[in-house]
Amino acid sequence: MSMKRREFLAAGLALNIGSAIALADQGGVTQGREGRGAGGAAGAGAGGRGAVPNRTAKTTRLFKSPGMYPNALAVMTDAPGGLWIGQQKVSTQSAKTYNLPFDADLDEAAWLVDWNGKLLKTVKTQSRNTSGMAYGGGFVWMGANAEPFGIFQVDLNSKEITHRQIPLSIDGRGGGCHGVKWHNGKLWVAALRLGGILRVDPTTWVPEVLIRVSSEEKPRLHDVEFDNEGNIWVVTGNNSASYPEGKAGLNKYDGKTGQLLMTVDFQNGSCDPHGLAWHDGHLISCDAGIHPGWKGGESPHTGYIFSIEIV
Predict the structure, then answer these.
(1) pTM of the model
(2) Cα separation of 77 and 85, whole Å?
């Protein structure tokens, strides 16, 4: 019996994603749309290849975001250069939950600042609860972690070009996002529903690679970034009820194989990492001041952009 073209493409896509998961060789658990762990599988790095090195990280505050609440970062690769910061506003319900003021203007900004924090440009987007952004192809890409979810492609004049859901959802609702990154012409999305980072072609929107990240110990994942050697870094964390209970971390993966190379734990008292960027040989992150389970602004580093040093 002959196979129709649509069936052939679907089968090929399934094989491609399955091969990517096998290649990454990661354990993990899936997450719900809100980013909570939803399973009990083995932790990341359970691939039978020996112990994964663990290191410690410390943070150094650099400057404050132009506004509240910074939850995404991306390096501006075109002139004049600088750092993009994605804003995460609170919804009506979140304002009550975190005891924070509610902004009736729901549109969220992408701020371009220089490396001293001076505001250079503001792009407005219709993303909601932004948790991840990228810059690439001349566009800002904002990841919505609340309805209507999806990835918003916006030009530098604040014109929306596309709005598409994270792929591989049976009901067409892609779920929450905690990170977006542009690398070598592709988008990498920290997809909460899939519990990992998904590489997507930004033109065809075809998913290509999935690396599982979530584990029982650290079911939360946030932004993703590439260093200058092509390795992949992902922010991880535990489920916690307060800033002192928070245990943020990093996973480092081989960018060619997806194999877990290193895990990192942050020192007590560190900034709370959400977004992630690579600049001048260092990882850069931001402390949004909004963290599920915590009081609003509970982190003493709320609103700061900071550098990360592996010690």
Answers:
(1) 0.84
(2) 14
